[in-house]
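Homework help board

Subject: predicted structure for assignment chain

Our instructor gave us this sequence and asked us to write out the predicted structure in token form, then describe one feature. I got the tokens but I'm not sure how to describe them. Can anyone check?
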Amino acid sequence: MSVGETSTGIISSERIENGVQKSVLITGCSGGVGRATAQEFNEAGWTVYATARNPSDIETLGEAGCELATLDVADQSDIDRVIDRILDDEGAIGCLVNAAGYGQVATIEDTSTETLKSQFEVNVFGPHRLIRAVLPHMRRENNGTIINVSSVLGRVALPGAGAYSSSKFALEAMSDAVRNEVGKFGIDVAVIEPGPVQTGASERVTTGPEETDREGPYEGLYSTIDNATAVGSDGPGSITPERVAEDILHAASSTKPAARYPTGTPARIGVLARFLPAGVQDALLDAVEKLGRWFAGVSSSRVHSWACEWPWQAISAMPRVSLLGESAGTHATVSSGDGWRSPRQSDAGSLTGHSMVDFWGDRP
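My token output:
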């Protein structure tokens, strides 16, 4: 089949580059990395289908030239509708970017099973639905790229991020499997692994009704995370959403993308740390937690605090985008300025503060 021709029709030549169909479907575009990725692809001349659950959140992307669509990654009918629209308009889907996701900061004991299910529903099952939806069409064209936005916490798990890390470990495993399943069909699969990402002002976040006793057995851990969030997403080593978007565009435009793109210095260090023996990792994390509490007690220096608590920046310094917990069991972790709140802690439901969650896009 010649370049510019598909089984469903003819594609305009300006939408083809190096044999790649320049149409991209991006989830989670209401903010953070998802929004930055839509802007990056749009400026590079791609036909961008920017999606989010709430269309009002992405109106400015439409004004910039992106095609907009309402899409909840937990709703198969939404996915089918958007895929059909792209095929009708473009004839093929050149790239899928799974950027929607969210994270929760809490110990495993403080995370209910329903909360864990909600985490996987968005971060794992959502990408799985979209991958299954686009693969038949990419396989027919013998061309396409799937990019899953993971995290350094998809390679190294930290205390307090068990639910989130579990979902990202699963996403990385699924990416490895499908990459080797579909490579022979001309389809590439890449994983983006950012560390701390700088973000702008926080938005309203909905929390769950349950209470967490922060003075219980995990008080020391929660205290360390509190201190780390004082530095937040602007701490040393943090990167902009635009920097992450650059790697995503590079992977989509490459004829032979890398399997993984650790983005930022903390991400590269974290990937290397996974090769340490488990006992060494555990001892280091324990020492860091103790030193962090000690420094917090003797000094108000944020530099001192960050020096001992940098691993938790991967949790605390994530894009601050709102999580609207519309589905049952979905909770957010927020900071109201005086500390972070676990998924099971709430004052009166909605709070305005800093979201301590890993939002590459939005909770789709």
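Reply (TA_rk): Your tokens look well-formed. For the description, you could write something like this. The longest strand covers residues 187-194. That's the kind of observation they're looking for.
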